[in-house]
Design goal:
By secondary structure, the protein is of the alpha+beta class. The chain is built from 5 helices and 8 strands; from the N terminus they run αβαβαββββαββα. It has helices spanning about 20-30, 35-40, 55-60, 105-110, 140-154, and strands at about 35, 50, 60-65, 70, 80-85, 95-100, 115, 125-130. It starts with 17 loop residues before the first helix and ends with a helix.
Length: about 150
């Protein structure tokens, strides 16, 4: 409920349906961590989407529906997560995530198969040059049909 300005009024609307909330509960039960909540705890009034109706953005009557989730192994790398509420141009605003990888974290997260660049002898941090796999929500059965329908109208 802290990620939605008016939860009671929206219980029957897409985006806050019981099955959608249950999906997120299952996702976090599998160990994925909402990075914004990890950094900011229970802070209220932080939204990433506002309806164009009735000047909702101006009144900050919104929803936080744009997320970055990470596995438990990446939680120690999370340095910051934010919402750029002052960026306009859409009903959504950008969300950001800052990750910092130390050698020991990278070694434990990706094992011996990681490739490193710009590693100085005295630098505790490095860049991993291989790409981590993308998380594609299109393949999640709970929301894939909604996304396919949405693409028809975009």
């Amino acid at each position: 409920p802290i990620d939605l300005a008016r939860p009671k009024q929206n219980e029957k609307y897409t985006g806050y349906l019981p099955e959608e909330r249950a999906f997120l509960d299952r996702f976090t039960a599998m160990g994925y961590v909402d990075t914004f909540r990890h950094v900011h705890g229970e802070a209220e009034g932080n939204y990433s989407w506002w309806s164009y109706k009735s000047r909702a953005r101006e009144k900050n009557v919104g929803w936080r529906i744009d997320y970055f989730f990470v596995s438990q192994e990446l939680v120690p790398a999370v340095r910051d997560a934010w919402i750029e509420k002052d960026v306009f141009g859409s009903a959504h605003c950008p969300v950001g995530l800052c990750l910092e990888f130390s050698y020991s974290l990278v070694a434990s997260a990706v094992g011996q198969k990681a490739f490193y660049s710009d590693l100085a002898a005295d630098a505790p941090f490095l860049r991993v040059t291989r790409h981590l796999p993308y998380f594609v929500s299109e393949y999640l059965t709970e929301i894939s049909s909604f996304q396919k329908i949405s693409k028809l109208f975009i």
